[in-house]
């Protein structure tokens, strides 16, 4: 299925963009002067298109471009791709040289940052009835994805959802009830503790959801709160974080959850892939890769909740955006519309980048990969429980997430109290979100 969205653990690589912005990526993309490119021979336009991925994904996207150019003979598309870690320096270099790409992939974690820095074009004028982009076909829960206020700075190219990934054999061996039906957190932790005890703590029932933003966000959403507000602030307060940390630290002390030492011992892998835990929260599209790394099949279960809210939502695996300085916004919009709506694209890409984003593309791909079918089954199971895509992370949100990991690690090692952890987190939030 590929790596449509960077996983929850390697947040440190996302700081790459923070550093680039700090050293002038935003300025480079927005202050490189007016575009000087002209229409080519025969009245054709050439769009430069940057995306992240590997050669396999590049081959699929080039097939999509061939189909697009066949239907739009006046528009040519020239691609350039890189691995996720290398993508942002590549983008920065192109921008600094005064030649930013017309169309680019953007991770959801950075859509607000780049949108508010003036890097991304507002495509609202190119979206709607009679316009280049038909966004009415977006899966209902995705219709807010790519919006910053009333500005349309991106269109989702795929989507996926948080799941509770678990090793069904390990749970069964421990006599634990698997998360195949809705259950509350305390009930789930009772079952998780059975796994820990069965293995004599060689394998914990669950990774610690207090050590990453995914766990915090999911729990807050289950309480009716948001991780981020529309204006880019935190959508929860001190008392909310205190309740969460207290609850999670209690489960860790009992042994239902792994401690920070398990995470460190598993590096550069993951506790789930090194066999140190038997379940964890993860984007569903990662199940194939994680199963392969673990050496045994992982299943997709329902995320526990103590409320009527699941806490999960449709997250864009990646978005397509146009550069604010592109001289070819109409042509870029036509290409974006083709990529998100044309059924040929869905047939070619399959689920390499995640589930299709529009009703136009749903059901177009013939899928034989068991892991892909696993994700499709899960997505159908949770469709009615998904809420709309929430506001994207704030500018500085990625660095705050890294700080959350550090604070949680100190807490779960017993070096600081819950109250101290909460104060440290919110003090840092004032600095990075100012």
Structural overview:
It comes from Streptomyces kunmingensis. This is ABC transporter substrate-binding protein. InterPro entries: Bact_solute-bd_prot1, SBP, TAT_signal. This protein is α+β, with helices and mostly antiparallel strands and 434 residues long. It is 41% helix and 11% strand. The protein has two domains: 213 residues, Periplasmic binding protein-like II (D-Maltodextrin-Binding Protein, domain 2, 3-Layer(aba) Sandwich), CATH 3.40.190.10; 188 residues, D-Maltodextrin-Binding Protein, domain 2 (3-Layer(aba) Sandwich), CATH 3.40.190. A five-stranded mixed sheet has the order 2-1-3-12-6. Strands 9-8-10 form a three-stranded antiparallel sheet, with helices on both faces. It has a two-stranded antiparallel sheet with strand order 4-5. A hairpin with a 2-residue loop joins strand 4 and strand 5. Helix 1 packs across helix 15 and helix 9 crosses helix 16. The longest helix has 17 residues.
Write the layout of secondary structure elements.
Blueprint: H1 11-22, H2 25-30, E1 45-52, H3 55-71, E2 75-82, H4 84-96, E3 103-106, H5 111-116, E4 147-148, E5 151-152, E6 155-156, E7 159-160, E8 162-166, H6 168-173, H7 185-198, H8 213-222, H9 238-254, H10 260-266, E9 279-283, H11 287-294, E10 299-301, E11 315-316, E12 319-322, H12 329-341, H13 343-349, H14 370-382, H15 397-412, H16 418-432
Parallel strand pairs: 1-2, 1-3
Antiparallel strand pairs: 3-12, 4-5, 6-12, 7-11, 8-9, 8-10
Helix pairs in contact: 1-4, 1-15, 3-13, 9-16, 15-16
InterPro entries: Bact_solute-bd_prot1 (IPR050490), SBP (IPR006059), TAT_signal (IPR006311)
Protein name: ABC transporter substrate-binding protein
Pfam families: SBP_bac_8
């Amino acid at each position: 299925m590929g790596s449509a969205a960077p996983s929850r653990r390697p947040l440190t690589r996302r700081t790459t963009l923070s550093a680039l912005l700090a050293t002038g990526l935003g300025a480079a993309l927005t202050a490189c002067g007016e575009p000087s490119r002209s229409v080519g021979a025969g009245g054709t336009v050439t769009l430069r298109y940057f995306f992240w991925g590997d050669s396999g994904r590049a081959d699929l996207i080039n097939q999509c471009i061939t189909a697009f150019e066949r239907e739009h003979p006046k528009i040519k598309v020239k691609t350039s791709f890189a691995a996720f870690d290398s993508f942002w320096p590549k983008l920065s270099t192109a921008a600094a040289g005064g030649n930013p790409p017309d169309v680019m992939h953007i991770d959801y974690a950075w859509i607000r940052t780049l949108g508010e820095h003036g890097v991304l074009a507002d495509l609202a004028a190119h979206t709607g009835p009679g316009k280049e982009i038909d966004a009415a076909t977006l899966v209902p829960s995705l219709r807010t994805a790519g919006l910053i206020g009333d500005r349309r700075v991106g269109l989702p190219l795929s989507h996926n959802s948080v799941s509770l990934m678990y090793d069904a054999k390990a749970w069964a061996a421990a006599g634990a009830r698997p998360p195949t039906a809705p259950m509350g957190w305390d009930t789930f932790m009772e079952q998780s503790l059975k796994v820990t005890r069965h293995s004599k703590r060689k394998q914990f029932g669950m990774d610690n959801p207090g050590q990453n933003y995914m766990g915090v966000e999911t729990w807050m959403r289950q309480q009716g709160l948001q991780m981020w507000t529309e204006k880019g602030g935190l959508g929860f307060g001190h008392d909310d974080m205190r309740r969460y940390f207290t609850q999670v630290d209690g489960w860790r002390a009992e042994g239902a959850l792994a401690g920070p030492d398990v995470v460190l011992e598993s590096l550069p892998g993951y506790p789930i892939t090194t066999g140190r835990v038997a379940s964890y929260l993860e984007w569903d599209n990662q199940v194939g890769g994680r199963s392969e790394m673990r050496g045994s099949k992982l299943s997709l279960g329902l995320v526990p909740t103590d409320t009527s809210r699941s806490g999960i939502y449709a997250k864009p695996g990646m978005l397509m955006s146009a550069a604010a300085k592109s001289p070819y916004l109409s042509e870029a919009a036509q290409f974006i519309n083709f990529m998100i709506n044309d059924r040929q694209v869905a047939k070619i890409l399959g689920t390499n980048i995640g589930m299709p984003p529009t009703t136009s593309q749903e059901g177009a791909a013939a899928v034989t990969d068991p892991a892909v079918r696993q994700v499709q089954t899960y997505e159908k199971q949770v469709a009615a429980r998904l809420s709309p895509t929430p506001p994207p992370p704030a500018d500085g949100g990625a660095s705050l997430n890294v700080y959350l990991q550090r604070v949680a690690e100190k807490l779960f090692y017993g070096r600081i109290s819950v109250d101290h952890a909460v104060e440290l987190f919110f003090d840092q939030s004032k600095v990075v979100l100012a």
